[in-house]
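Chapter summary example: a protein plus iron/sulfur cluster.
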Amino acid sequence: MSSKQKTYYIHTFGCQSNKSDSERIAGDYEARGYSEAKAWQDCDELVINTCAIRKRAEDKVLGLVQNILKHFRESDKPRPKLILTGCMTHHANERLYELLPDIDEILPINEVGFNQAAVRKDKKHAWIPISVGCNSYCTYCIVPYSRGREKSRDEADIMNEVQRLVDQGYNEITLLGMNVNSWGLEKVGVPMRKMMMEDDNFTREDLPDNQTQYLTSTDTPPFVRLLQNITKFDQIIKIRFMSSNPWDFHDELIEEIGNNKKIDRYVHLPIQSGSNDVLYRMNRGYTVEKYLAVVNKLRALDSDVVIGTDIIVGFPGETNEEFNETVELAKKIDWKVGFVAIYSPRPGTASWRLYKEDEIPHKIKKKRWEILDKIINKDNMSDRPKVI
Ligand code: SF4
């Protein structure tokens, strides 16, 4: 007598990396004979892939778990097994079980293997993770603590996945990583969390400056070589990548984008602020002048290249003058699209630790968001502020 096939459901919060991880978690379930349930109310195992970019993101997870528990308290069906993964696993397990005592299992995000075949909904375009983690320490960001040190995926694994995708009829891919530009390099890695969390006298000067991950001089950056190798597949017609860090945006990568028309003409290059002083407080590892040099080189090579960016307004201590520098830069650069986010303090980050006293009132942050969003996104693609 055959037993009923077990089912899973994955609820994904947050960024594209999480969505890509969820495709692989689904692959793992299907390899074990599970099928996807249509709704979380009907599954045997429910995975919650969490985002921890800000406190509100974690509150949403807590809210979802409360809803799930309430639903099953009032239902005659047994509650599914609850599995938590994603960026919230940066909390120690004890803390997670304190926050969410009903969770049955915690799956550390780094246990979601690169090579697990993904279950993809899209049949033409595929996301391919090429690295995990981040070796930088932007002060507002939780990723270095939630996803750990940067690690590149083997080239052979990536190429095998591209081959499989081509065989299945895919013709567009997006290479994913927190810093795709430094893929394949021997990395600079400085463990930081302990020092920041345990030393009450920790200052911005104690934070290692974000720096290029190019430890050794190489002929051609490995990421450029990877792009060239993927380009050789005739069936692949479009290659995109994200995210790019300006401090690792090598000249040879700029030339490759200029010459290789399979690479999308849209380049997303986060600036975060147009003020060098704010960039220092954010520990972004470049100046406005260096950022401009990259943009100018890209545009000089191909006038069809369009640039988009991410900006945070209301970073602690941001003066009117510093904000106006961002406004002036926006007018000068003319980004095609800008994801403008309102800063909010995120427990566990360096900026939360260092700049508690320098919070900007929400009213001012909101006003700044409106001004900048209007300048950059003239056609009003986004209609409400995103909070980071
Ligand atoms: S580069 Fe900065 S913003 Fe991006 S993931 Fe790393 S620490 Fe966060």
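Key point: Residues 134, 136-138, 141, 143-144, 178-179, 245 surround iron/sulfur cluster (CB under 6 Å).
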